[in-house]
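We emphasize that the prediction below concerns an isolated chain of 99 residues; any contacts that depend on oligomerization or on bound cofactors are therefore not represented. The input was used exactly as deposited, without trimming of termini.
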Amino acid sequence: MEIKLDADQEKELTERIINLVKTSVKQAIGSQDKPYLSRKETAKYFGVAESTIRYWATLGMPVAIIDGRKLYGKQSITNWLKSKEKPEKEHKKSPLRGI
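Result of the prediction step, given as a token string:
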């Protein structure tokens, strides 16, 4: 399938793509400077669903609560996740391995 655009359409599409990339880069840079994030930002930062962040909090993940608002420290969560790591040999082996 081929899509043909006239010069104006091509220019508009190019401008939209450039603006989208600029916005995404600004957001990425901005979140790197923020040590504490909202649940939504935290989920995006760690690449998981917001429900996973809620679940992790029930498992003891550090959460800062200020005036009822929950904030999640990137470094604190990273350290918490590292504390949960186990060496490869301690992982449960699948009963079907080796068959």
